[in-house]
Amino acid sequence: MYNFISNYYDMLFPHEVYVEWKCFARPIIQKSRAIQAFKERKEKTLVVDAGCGSGELAAILATYYDVIGIDISSDMLAQAVEKHPENNITWVCQDISKMEIGSSAAAIFATTDTLNHITNKNKLFAFFKRAYDTLESGGFLFFDVVMPSFFKNNYSRGECSFEDFDWGSFFWTCEFLERSGKVTYNITAFERCNDKEELYKRYDEEVSERIWSTSVLREGLTKAGFFNFTIYDDLRHPFEFAYLYPEKALDDYDRLYFICEKP
């Protein structure tokens, strides 16, 4: 997954998305019981970016904390290492459902479809348990998930999406099977060869995701030990409470954002 696409991943997920995550989560981390525990031990606060991709969020968080960035794709991690040589970031190639960092963390992030890329329920629940066990008491798990309405609104008629860049072009289609929750992106890229505008090399890649209902996510979080979690429809300031419209069911939003505190 994300082999050729790893070279151009940041064009698909702009830097501003990760800045929003930092602005959303940092006030919560700074007021947490977990960060107080790090201060009492006179240690620099550690946070984890699970499914870190090319490392954009990890690099932003490294302005404030020590960071461990974890991803199962060696190609994505190679991009992260090259782009972000910060000394206080440790990069780990690992399946996040088997996450093992050998220390406690004040916060764990799993953003931009990371948990949708986990297509097996047991592995999803295993990640929640690993996250719970890794967090310091009072620490937070932050994640987002894309929901069925996103695909209904954007791909219900078999639309083909297109992005054009100086180096070439992306085309992709998406198949969403609502009954099973399975999502398949078929991506084709044409990359210009040796600055010759008339010659392109073609790459084809398939990316799979799965849509998780809020009931499944609640079940997995509760089994892991998270009893205090809040669901948002947008990355707004966490202390503003007018974030969900009562007439709209949670599963009707395009994307949901979870804040989960370890007791």
List the helices and strands and how they pair.
Layout: H1 9-12, H2 15-30, H3 33-40, E1 46-50, H4 56-61, E2 66-71, H5 74-83, E3 89-93, E4 105-110, H6 121-134, E5 135-146, H7 148-155, E6 160-164, E7 168-177, E8 182-193, E9 196-210, H8 214-224, E10 228-232, E11 255-261
Explain what you see:
With 263 residues, this protein is an alpha/beta fold. It has two domains: 195 residues, Rossmann fold (3-Layer(aba) Sandwich), CATH 3.40.50.150; 62 residues, S-adenosyl-L-methionine-dependent methyltransferases (N-terminal domain of TfIIb, Single Sheet), CATH 2.20.25.110. It is built from eight helices and eleven strands. The chain starts with 8 loop residues before the first helix and ends with a strand.
What would a concise description of this structure say?
It contains eight helices and eleven strands. With 263 residues, it is an alpha/beta fold. It has two domains: 4-147 and 211-261, Vaccinia Virus protein VP39 (Rossmann fold, 3-Layer(aba) Sandwich), CATH 3.40.50.150; 149-210, Single Sheet (N-terminal domain of TfIIb), CATH 2.20.25.
